[in-house]
Amino acid sequence: MFLDHAVIEIKAGRGVEGVSSFRRESYEPMGGPDGGDGGKGGDVVLRVDTQLSTLMDYRYRQHYAAERGNKGEGGNRTGRSGEDLVLRVPPGTVVRDADTGETLAELVEPGDEVVAARGGRGGRGNTRFATATNQAPRHAQPGEEGEERRIELELKLIADVGLVGEPNAGKSTFLSAVSAATPKVADYPFTTLTPNLGVVQLSGSRTFVVADIPGIIEGAHEGRGLGHQFLRHIERTRTLALMIPSDALEPQQEYDKLMAELRAYSEELAAKPHCVVFTKGDLLPPEWPAPRVEAPGAWGQFLVSSVAQRGLDPLLEGLWTHAARVMEAERGEGLEREEWRP
Question: pTM score, two decimals?
């Protein structure tokens, strides 16, 4: 089962109070205070694990707590801090505060992590309160409670190319033809119920990742159909391929509808570079011209047949070129930010 959303409750460990203690040794009648500090509570940390691909681990368990600290001892011995609780999430996970909606982190790269709840500070022992006028303090400081919050985890798949189209537009067939992915393929709508990823390999050791999401119908941004649940998975893609069957009665209308749904969901998503791909080219008679639509914002239009393996190479080269171009721009922006960082 593919799970891309979860809400869990986390609680960091409690810090423990310090100790009130005095030295008791032979020939030391005035030993003085020696109470150690209490241990700090453990943090709750979310960390990327590249072995995970869904949030399934958080489907049946929603409450997580880190270890509390340990009590200090005499002899100025500080108590052991509680162990941090590390929750592992797949790459592409967005972490939000479920009550305020504040985005705490976007965990994308391997090893990325965020402290979602900080452990409470341990209390100070009575040694800390000794002064010239109070050489035998008999009180210690209590520990602090750890942070407690509800967090929302949302998974956005990381892919270079996103396939967008109505149900039964040939997205899954295309993905299976250009990669080793094995999505469900059938001759009826809504065969794709969850997103699928495939890795496309080109010459020169070039590879890119393609994401196939369930078909988009009119009103998807309002919750109709299945595609609206997974539009988030193409928000991180570098270019889009809008797929329209070659035998569509009104190709222009289908293109306009897809763009309208993307725009209604997110202006940023609709502004991504995209091309138009006419699928099922084997259904057209050989003498028919390739279909075209008015798409001023598209960087190309292609006619392909995934079943007959026709027209795929120019499309894949174009997808690679534009995804790589966006990747280079992202790297340039990152370098510029590093250079200007104070």
Answer: 0.65
